[in-house]
Amino acid sequence: MTTPLLDVKDLCVEFKRPGGIVHAVNGVSFSLQPGESLGIVGESGSGKSVTVLSVLGLIARNGRVVRGEALLDGEDLITMSPEELREVRGRDVGVIFQDPMTSLNPIMRIGNQITEAMLVRKLYTPTEAKARAIDLLRRVGIPQPEQRFNDYPFQFSGGMRQRVMIALALALNPKLLVADEPTTALDVTVQAQVLKLLDDLRREMGMGMIIITHDFGVATNYCNRINVMYAGQVMESATVDQLITRTANPYSLGLLESTMEIGHGKQAIQPIPGNPPSAMVVHQGCPFAPRCRYSTERCQVEKPVLRAIERDHLVFCHYAEDVMRDVTEQIHA
Ligand SMILES: Nc1ncnc2c1ncn2[C@@H]1O[C@H](COP(=O)(O)OP(=O)(O)O)[C@@H](O)[C@H]1O
Ligand SMILES: [Mg+2]
Predict the structure, then answer these.
(1) What pLDDT, on the 0 to 100 scale, is given for residue 186?
(2) Where in the chain is the domain with CATH 3.40.50.300?
(3) The pLDDT of residue 298 is above 70
(4) Ligand 2 centroid vs 252 CA: distance in angstroms?
(5) Residue pLDDT, tens place only, 50-79
(6) How far is 245 from 327, CA to CA, in rounded Å?
(7) Ligand 1 pocket test: which of 8, 11, 13, 15 has the largest number of ligand atoms within 8 Å of its C-beta?
(8) By three-state DSSP, how is residue 166 classified?
(9) Which ligand gives the minimal distance to the CA of 51?
(10) Which of 172, 215, 168, 208 shows the shortest CA–CA distance to 191?
């Protein structure tokens, strides 16, 4: 086993709100190996963004990490000062958001935004920084990068702006690239191009990558491993193949069945009945129990733990073995 690039243990994050406490992340653990691509999937509000952004110090001021560790190359991000964390973010981690305008300065030429990141750390001379910025723009697929270097963000289309943001995130050769719903705002063709680009860059540069997405299809196409999240909890963590052919958590199964192309059923897509719980509620048992076809009385009162059901396959469910047996039987039927 190599040392993980990122090792998150028992992360809990809360937000204070006028009406009470929001329990956004409730004891999440996972690790990411160097060069690996991890997808975090789940419905909106399941805690995907907060899980990753909280360890990078990028959540709103009313939120705090209540418990847990997040080791990046062995160093705990949670106990770092805001200054240290800012330094790590600049140097080791690139972050890409759904809306490029959250990262890009609208009134600064894009070339200068990219070189500025490099010059602040005095790792390059201005001439080197400019050459590198142009090279990055070329690599992310911006035509005529020498000319585009001097353009402002508004002079680019949505897809091209996303590429500029990727170039900016890559400026300092990060070890880890975090992409939070990177393509949700783009149309399907551009979405595929941008995801393919991210995947190529990951392989080329040997970065670890986390793709946060509500789209199961995106995660299965572009990631090695997937964490399925629900109510601030990891429900299942598995390789893409395990998750599709040996599904062991009823919520993951529900997500699969509601994603037509990769569903197990021969029937039409089946949405999961019911709605996700409010994050203000503290669950005694399994948070998915009220919507779960496998649930029993035990699930209402006893919270499962995330446990290994086979190698590299972790599941949060008392009845994981039953679910997996049903899935494999149905596939072979
Ligand atoms: N600043 C905030 N104040 C209060 N609640 C928040 C805040 N940011 C996020 N939350 C809540 O935390 C939970 C997890 O949010 P998030 O991680 O953004 O979900 P998603 O899975 O869609 O990325 C949600 O219930 C959300 O409403
Ligand atoms: Mg999100």
Answers:
(1) 83
(2) 6-227
(3) yes
(4) 18
(5) 999 999 999 999 999 999 999 999 999 999
(6) 7
(7) 15
(8) helix
(9) 1
(10) 215
| pTM score, whole prediction | 0.94
Q: Note the pLDDT tens digit of each residue in 83-103.
A: 999 999 988 999 998 888 888
Nearest ligand to the C-alpha of residue 44?
Answer: 1
Give the residue carrying structure tokens 């073995």: 321
pLDDT at 267: 56
User: What's the confidence (pLDDT) of residue 98?
Assistant: 86
| Residue 105 near residue 160, CB atoms below 8 Å | no
Nearest Cα residue to 36 out of 226, 167, 193, 248 = 226
pLDDT at 226 over 80: yes
Residue 307, classed as helix, strand or coil, is: strand
Q: State the Cα–Cα distance between residues 111 and 173, nearest whole angstrom.
A: 17
Cα–Cα distance between 107 and 250 in angstroms, integer? 48
Rounded to the nearest whole angstrom, what is the distance from the C-alpha of residue 66 to the centroid of ligand 1? 15
For the cut 70, the answer to whether the pLDDT of residue 204 exceeds it is yes
> What residues are in contact with ligand 1 under a 6 Å CB criterion?
15, 17, 22, 24, 42, 44-50, 60, 62-63, 279
Q: Which CATH architecture has domain 6-227?
A: 3-Layer(aba) Sandwich (3.40)
DSSP string across 100-135: GGGTS-TTS-HHHHHHHHHHHTT-S-HHHHHHHHHH
Token pair for 8: 């998150």
Q: Write out the H or E segment, with its range, that includes residue 326.
A: helix 320-332
Atom from ligand 1 closest to the CA of residue 44:
22
Residues in the chain: 333
pLDDT in tens, 109-160: 999 999 998 998 888 999 999 999 999 999 899 999 999 999 999 999 988 9
